[in-house]
Amino acid sequence: MAADTEPLRTQADLLRRGLADLRAEDAELASILDAEVTRQHRTLSLVSSSCAAGPRSLAASASALVNVTVEGAPGRRHYSGCENVDRVEALAIRRARELFSAQYACVQSHSASNAIYQVLTALAEPGDTILGMALEQGGHLAHGRVEAFAEANYKAVRYGTTSQGEIDYTEVRQLAMAHRPRIIICGATAHSRVVDFQRFRAIADEAGAIVLADISHIAGLVATGRHPSPIDAAHVTITCTHKQLAGPRGGLILSGRDADTKVPGLRSSFRRVLEQAVSPGMQGAPAVNVIAAKAAALGYAMSPPFDAYMGRIRATADEMACAFMARDYEVVGGGTENHTILLRLRGGISGSIAESALEKCGIIVSKKRGPRENRSSFAANGLCIGTGSIAQRYVDAQGCRQIVDLVCRILDQVQPHGEQKYTLEPVLQEQFRQQTEALCTMYPIREYGDR
Ligand SMILES: *Cc1c(COP(=O)(O)O)cnc(C)c1O
Q1: Which atom of ligand 1 is nearest to the CA of 251?
Q2: What residues pair up with 240 in beta bridges, in sequence order?
Q3: I need a labelling partner for 193 at 20 to 30 A (CA). Which of 59, 119, 161, 284 fits?
Q4: Can you name the CATH fold of 64-301?
Q5: What is the pLDDT of residues 157-178, one digit of tens each?
Q6: Over pLDDT 90: what percentage of the chain?
């Protein structure tokens, strides 16, 4: 019982004791937690959003800050006892502003979808029109799909992409002029081309709309100058912190040169209405432990190792796209300009069959409808893959080719029966799974940046 009575004076005491107690007193949960770490090590994630949170973010989120309930902003709280949470939130804000060269940053949103809804609530009235990218063309659920909040509260109009996977800016402009949306959302979930934020702004200025950029998928590329920044082009930018920023699950709201200008039709500035919309508008107490984890991730994102990590994300994406094309697979747009590769499958294999067969062999991918594809997402023959995770494994050019080779060999052995049923010999499946594990062992997940 000695361990139970030892004082817990430091963050290290808390983490050590927590791990020891879990192991000793709650083996059931501890074993699941360990099993998930093992699963992540033994499977190859080619999901375009996936990046493992860095250990310092994990440690910061497991901190005593979770015990503090606060509301409001640093220095303007509705509670006392806030000296450290104020310092943590101010630090996260400072780092977010510095990393993205923003005038305004809010670090409280619990997720990117929350951040989007907070921005929509701040800037639009129910019934207003929102122009966003169609889900099946690469957009995100929160941008205006039928079931989502946005569609329930606003009139959603959608634009798509060209056959080359480029945003159809002509269509964006036509829709903007015809529907006069209050807000145009730009940014995507399954998109392999550079987004021209300036062009969105020019269209919005012509149509009298506000631009909301969502860089959840490309935040690291933006932060390191590998993708044009929307901060000054858009009125407001949001991102999640758990994809390329490799931080905790959460969202950020940012604004650049428009932060202190008046919102069209309102008497307050963007900064003021955004602040109000987050808290008390849609959120109670922020998760300060998660804000600390965001600060850790943002700090890391300003370091040379993070820059190198983003360099690897881009290089491996080019490498993989070339390797697929060398195997005669069609890559939408003939390559990629970011971390995402959109593939078209062949031989009657649908995206959902490929997703399931590859998962059985230890490789995780996402099915995805191709540009201008009318079939359902189950019948469509598109696959979306990305390099966030394999770049954390330091997979080199040769490794990229080996992974592509394995994926192609698996798909060659799949016999489709219709849109969703298929056969893959169990003996082969087991062999493929071992080959995936061998690659995972050759390229283990490391604390990114420790080389
Ligand atoms: C992942 C993603 C989101 C949603 O992030 P959550 O934090 O899970 O809500 C929003 N927008 C885009 C473009 C995304 O890719």
Answers
A1: 7
A2: 251
A3: 119
A4: Aspartate Aminotransferase; domain 2 (3.40.640)
A5: 999 999 899 999 999 999 999 9
A6: 80
| Nearest Cα residue to atom 6 of ligand 1 | 112
Cα(227)–Cα(214) distance, integer angstroms: 13
Q: Ligand 1 pocket, 187 CB below 6 A? A: yes
Pocket lining: 113 vs ligand 1, CB cutoff 6 Å: yes
The domain locations on the chain are 64-301, 308-442
Closest ligand 1 atom to Cα of 215:
13
Tens of pLDDT along 358-388?
999 999 999 988 777 777 777 788 999 999 9
- Ligand 1 proximity of 140 Cβ (cutoff 6 Å): yes
Ligand 1 centroid to 112 CA: how many Å?
5
Distance 216 CA to ligand 1 centre (A): 6
Which atom number of ligand 1 is nearest to the Cα of residue 114?
Answer: 9
pLDDT digits (tens, 9 = 90+) for 210-232: 999 999 999 999 999 999 999 99
> What digits encode the pLDDT tens for the residues 316-343?
999 999 999 999 999 999 999 999 999 9
Domains 64-301 and 308-442 share a fold: no
363-366 contacts: CB < 8 A, separation 24 or more? 363/43, 363/44, 363/46, 363/403, 363/406, 363/407, 363/410, 363/436, 364/43, 364/44, 364/45, 364/46, 364/47, 364/50, 365/46, 365/47, 365/407, 366/47, 366/48, 366/190
CB atoms closer than 10 angstroms to residue 251? 27
C-beta 240 within 6 A of ligand 1? yes
Question: What pTM value is reported for the model?
Answer: 0.95
- State whether the beta carbon of 49 lies less than 6 angstroms from ligand 1: yes
Q: Is the CB of 366 under 6 A from ligand 1?
A: no
Domain 308-442: assigned CATH number: 3.90.1150.10
How far from 1 is each of 4, 5, 11, 21, CA to CA, in Å? 5, 7, 21, 11
Residue with tokens 């820059």: 307
